[in-house]
User: Fold this.
Amino acid sequence: MQTQTINPSATEQMIQMVLNSWTNQNKAVISFFNKYNDDAYLNEVAPGRNRAIYLLGHLTATNDSLLPLLGLGDKLYPELETPFQINADDKKPVKQTVAELKQYWEKVNATLTEGFAKMLSHDWLERHTRVSAEDFALDPSRNKLTVLLGRTSHQSYHLGQLNFLKADLKA
Amino acid sequence: MQTQTINPSATEQMIQMVLNSWTNQNKAVISFFNKYNDDAYLNEVAPGRNRAIYLLGHLTATNDSLLPLLGLGDKLYPELETPFQINADDKKPVKQTVAELKQYWEKVNATLTEGFAKMLSHDWLERHTRVSAEDFALDPSRNKLTVLLGRTSHQSYHLGQLNFLKADLKA
Assistant:
């Protein structure tokens, strides 16, 4: 890519586009979980695959882990890590209801949005909290922007799967 | 977001992160289609859902349409639009083989990569070719970067679905 002089505001615009992309995926996830009666989400999204409620817990736990990873604070719901990130879907009753997980999802994303608003453009190019200064010097792409782009793709990935759910219990 | 003075190279770094994210998704798609015997991709990814070969055609046609949309040239395979973008999967034999579609996929992405290498950072914040100057003035987020971010999410979305394919015919 060629070098050029560019207005500093271009960097802010670019961050805004990435944040828009993130927010759009967040909205698509919650729209999906507002579409049917809560019971519908207890079903597997396809035969033998994860239940929709598991994927909601998984996505919530994953976004929650962004708070410490981006240096924005502690996890809000650390209890979600074991059942939804470390363990695979065991198909047993989930401790949280769909309604509770939806609340957690909204709370986590609202907290992230607040944190993002306080970040300066160049903060996004700084290392995330799980890479050492030494490793970051070797690979500066291990920054906060890369983390957010990865998590945005992660949401899209599971959203594609969620949309396979066959449900006829309209909310 | 607060304003700050920032090195122009920050914009180039940001673009590079977005392009890395795009490239990672491209690689994940082709890795998936290199995993099994070609015949496996003639199956539906889940009961009653799209066949994997259809999704390969769909992703290829979608990426091909980026060439005109980003002002990088004409589509390479316009014949893919009707069967894989306009029409849903009709479950009839596909005209192209999996091997052919994989070649098209690689050719389209290589051509896009060449085009991206010639773009300056600020080109990404310019309007894409399907939005008018008037509409763009009202909503500057309708730029080329937003298009690429959207298509990256699109790839992740279908990749999540592709990974549901049950196949035991290792390549």
